[in-house]
Amino acid sequence: MQVNLAEAIALLKRGEVVAIPTETVYGLAADASNEAALGQIYAIKERPANNPLIVHISDSGQVDTWAAEFPPLAKKLAQVFWPGPFTLVLPAKSSVSSTVRAGEPTVALRVPNHPLALQLLKDSGLGLAAPSANKYTQLSPTTAAHVASGLGNAVSILDGGPCQVGIESTIVSVVADEWRLLRHGMISEAAIEALAGKPALKDNKPLPKVPGQHLLHYSPHTPVQLFSDRAALLEAAYALTRSHAALLIGPGKEPACAVIRLPAQTNQVAEQLYNALHQLDALKVKQLLIELPADTSEWAAVRDRLNRAGYQD
Ligand code: TXA
Ligand code: MG
Question: What domains sit in the chain, N to C, each tagged with a CATH number?
Answer without folding.
Answer: 5-196 (3.90.870.10), 224-309 (3.40.50)
